[in-house]
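Appendix B, example 12.
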Amino acid sequence: MESPYKHEREPPNMAKDADRHDERFREKRRKEEEYRKQLPGEDEEPLPPPVEPIHVEKQPGRNDPCSCGSGKKFKQCCGKS
């Protein structure tokens, strides 16, 4: 049971806190090293430039007029299948 008086409480276990801090620090360092291994080094070829995405034309909606020119709605004409 904890005492309501500050001077009678047990001191916090700072060794456990320090161990947890060290463990988090080591884990962060390990993740950073794994990430650096993925990057090209000075002797390796640089990464290729990013590829631009291919833009696909928007599909007509169900209630849009059909693009074949029939005058019907897309869902009743070419979108039926």
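The CA atoms of residues 23 and 72 lie 67 Å apart. Helices lie at 14-38.
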